Amino acid sequence: MKALCWYGKEDVRVETVPDPKILNPRDAIIEITRTAICGSDLHLYDGFIPTMEAGDILGHEFMGEVVETGSEVKNLKRGEKVVVPFTIACGQCFYCRRGLWSACDNTNPNAWMMEKMYGYSGSGLFGYSHLMGGYAGGQAQYVRVPFADVGPLKVPDGVPDDKVLFLSDIFPTGYMAAENCDIKPGDVIAVWGCGPVGQFAIRSALLLGAAEVIAIDRFPERLQLAERGGAETLDYSRCDDVVEELKFRTGGRGPDACIDAVGMEAHATTPSGIYDEIESRLMLETDRPMVLRQAIQACRKGGTVSIPGVYAGLLNKINFGAAFGKGLTFRMGQTNMHKYMQPLLQKILDGAIDPSEIISHRVALRDAPRMYKVFRDKQDHCTKVVLDPKAA
Amino acid sequence: MSSQHADFPFLRTRRQVNQRKGASRALRIPLIAGGATLAALGIKRRSLLGAGMAAGGGLLMYRGITAKGAWLPTLIHVRKSITIDKPPEELYRFWRDFENLPRFMRHLKSVRSGASRLHWVSTGPLGKSFSWEAEIVEDRENELISWRTLPGSQIENQGTVRFQPAPEGRGTEVRVELLYRPPAGRVGAAFAMLFGEEPEQQIREDLRRFKELMEAGEIATTDGQPHGRRSKVTTILKSVSGFGRSDEQMGAQRVIS
To answer: What are the structural domains, with CATH classification, of chain A?
Structure first.
C-alpha cells in the first residue's frame, strides 16, 4: 500500500510499504477513505517530538471502511464505515472505566519510555512517535486499528466523510477544551490560536453557552473563519498588549477562561517570544510556552486555563506566581476521545455544527508531503488539509 | 536489608546477600566521573579550597568504586508492584497455573508443573536455553505463591508473588519479589545477555504484560506492522538491544484462549 512515512525534520515521503495485518484478536483493518493532516503532525514534521524513527507512518485523523476484523471484534462488520479515535484505549482498565480514555493503562507497548519522562504512561496514539506506542498511522491506504471493539464509531449511511472525519481528533479535542472551561452563563472565553482545534473550541464554547468568545490569531483567513463561527476576533499582530486588550474588552474583569489552542510551537516577536526562540535553540527548554504565559496573565481571578495545544517537555519562565495568586484552575491533556465521539456525531447529524467548513484543501495522498509544508507555513490560506488515499 | 528479605530465609541464612554499605550500582559511573572531575579541579586550584575539593572528589571516587554490587552483583533483589483491575482470585488462579507464565514473561519458553516440582525453561541467546527445577515453598489460596529453585539449578532464584485487594474499586495490588544469583562463567555471560543490565525493568515489563493480558485480554503490540525503510543504524541498535525483539521470537503467546 501507499503510506506517508517520516524520515526526519521536514522530510516526509509517500512510500510503498507492506499492507497491515491483524496482529491481535481485538484488531481490525480499515481501508481509509479520508485522512487529514493535524496541526500536531506539524510538531513531528518540525522534529519537535522525540523517539521518531525513519520510516514511521504518520497520521492520526482518519476514517474508512472495515475490511477485516480479529476474532474478538464482534461489533464491526466488513464494509461498515467508521471514524477512528486517535487515542487507543482498551475500555477495561481503571482509567477507561472512569472516562479517562486517553490515560488508558494497557495500550502503549512502550509505556516504559513514557514512564521515564512523565512518571506514568498515557494511552497509545496512532502515528505519533514511539514514546506514544509507535503505532503505524493512518495517512495511508490501510491501517491496523487495535482494540477496534471499543474505538471506532460507526457512521450512518449517507453522511459525507468530510462532515464526520474530524470526530477522529480535532472536534472532540476542541470540545473537551471548551468543556474543561466549565462554562457558566455570561462567561467570556478567550481562545489563542484559530487553527482547526481553536475553531472547534470556539464553536463548542458557544454551543456550551458562552456569552462571548474572543479569538486570537494573526492570519486573516483564520480570523474570518473564527468570526464565521461566532467569535469576536483579536489580531495580535495589530495589538500592543493582548492582555490589556482582553481586559478592556471584558470591562476590566478578564476572560473567565482562557484556551491555549497553540501549544509548544508558538511564535511571536514579543520579548517573551524572542526569549523562547533563544532558549529553545540553546536546548534550554523544549517547548515555547508564550501563549500559556499570556493566558495565565490574562485569565480572571479564579478562572480556568484550558490547554488543548500540545506540550511535550520542559517550559521555562512560567508565571506560576500569577497562577497561584489568582487561584487559577488548569485543565489539559490528550482528549478522552471515546467519551465525546457519539454525542458529537449527534450534534453533526442534528445540524448544530458542520465541521467540514474548516477544510481549505482536499488533495490526494501523494500530495501530502507538499501539503505538510503549505500547512506549516500557512501558505495559500491553508486552514485544514484533507487527504484522499483513493484519489489517483 | 534483612527485613526486605524476610521472604527469603533460604538465601538469607546462607549469608550471601551482598550487605556491603555504599552507593547503589546506578550511581557508580556518576560518582567516579564526578569525583574525578572535582578532584582534578581541586588540584588545579592549589589552594585550601582546592585541597578540600580534591579530597572530596577522591572520597566520591572511592564511594563509586566500592558501590554496592559495583562490579559483579552476587545476588539480585527485585521488588515490583502493579495494580490490576481484577479480583485477587482471578489473578491468583491464572498465576497458579504456572504453565500460563510464558504468556506474559517474555524470557520464559515453558513451565511444566509436576506433582510438587516446576520445570522452567527460558530462552537464551543464539537459540540456547536455560532450565531449572523449582519447588513451591508456600501457597496461600488467592493470597500468595512462593517458590525457590532446587539445589544444582543453573539459575538459582526464589520468588514470591502476593495478591492483595487494592482500595475500593481498584482491583488487586500484585507484588513480586525475586531474588536470584546470576551464574558464573560462560553461563553467566549468556545470562547477562538474556536478562540485560536491568532485571528490574524486565520484571516490570512482565508485570505490565500480565496486567494487559488480564484486563484487556491481549498484550498491546506493534510487532509486525508496516513501516517505511528504516535507517541501518536503528536496525542494528534494535537487533543488539533487548527492545524491539518481537514477542513471536521470544515465544510469548499473547492471547487468552
So the answer is: 2-169+335-388 (3.90.180.10), 171-332 (3.40.50.720)
What local confidence, expressed as pLDDT, does residue A231 receive? Answer: 98
C-alpha cell at A384: 485544514
Give the number of other Cβ atoms within 10 Å of residue B15's Cβ.
7
B127-155 confidence digits (pLDDT tens): 678 888 999 999 999 999 999 999 877 77
Looking at the DSSP bridge assignments, the partners of residue A233 are A215
- pLDDT of residue B235 exceeding 80, the answer is no
CB contact under 8 A, A90 and B254: no
CB-CB neighbours of A184 under 10 Å: 12
Q: pLDDT below 50 — which residues of chain A? A: none
* Closest to A152 in 3D by CA, of A140, A164, A134: A164
Among residues B231, B219, B222, the alpha carbon closest in space to that of A143 is found at B222
Contacts 24+ apart (CB under 8 A), A319-324: A319/A293, A320/A296, A322/A296, A322/A297, A323/A296
Task: Identify whether the C-beta of residue A149 lies closer than 8 Å to the C-beta of residue A176.
Answer: no
**What is the residue-averaged pLDDT of chain B?**
76
B254–A24: do the CB atoms touch at under 8 Å? yes
Of B92, B241, B88, residue with least CA distance to B170: B88
Q: At residue B80, what are phi and psi to the nearest 5 degrees?
A: -145, 145
Instruction: Calculate mean pLDDT across residues B221-239.
Output: 82
Q: What is the ipTM of this complex?
A: 0.91
B13 Cβ neighbours under 8 A, 6+ residues apart: none
Neighbours of A382 (CB within 10 A): 20
Task: State the Cα–Cα distance between residues A381 and B174, nearest whole angstrom.
Answer: 55
Q: What are phi and psi of B3, to 5 degrees?
A: -65, -35
User: Considering only CB atoms, which chain B residues are within 8 Å of A69?
Assistant: none
Check A106 against B212: CB less than 8 A apart.
yes
Q: How far is CA A304 from the centre of its chain?
A: 20
pLDDT average, residue stretch B235-240: 61
Of the listed ranges A303-307, A321-325, B107-111, B211-215, the least confidently predicted one is B107-111
Containing H/E element for A119?
Answer: none
Contact A93 B221 (CB under 8 A): no
Question: What confidence tens digit (pLDDT) does each residue in A379-392 have?
Answer: 999 999 999 999 97
As given in the structure block, the three cell numbers for residue A13 are 515521503
The per-residue pLDDT for B93 is 97
Q: Does the beta carbon of A28 lie under 8 angstroms from any beta carbon of chain B? A: no
Whether residue B85 and residue A21 make contact (CB cut-off 8 A), yes or no, is no
Helix extents (H) in B46-111:
48-65, 88-96
Q: What is the residue type of A246? A: L
Q: Tell me the residue type at A94.
A: F
Is residue A151 within 8 Å of A145, Cβ to Cβ?
yes
CB count within 10 Å of CB A64 equals 27
Considering only CB atoms, A53 lies closest to which of B85, B230, B254, namely: B230
d(CA A314, CA A306): 18
Three-class secondary structure of residue B9 per DSSP: helix
**Residue B193 clears pLDDT 90, i.e. is over it:** no
Instruction: Please report where in the chains the cell 592549589 appears, as a residue.
Output: B46
Residue A172, Ramachandran bin (φ over 0: left; ψ between -120 and 50: alpha; else beta): alpha
Of B205, B220, B229, the CB nearest to A146: B220
486555563: which residue's cell? A305
Residue type, A383: T
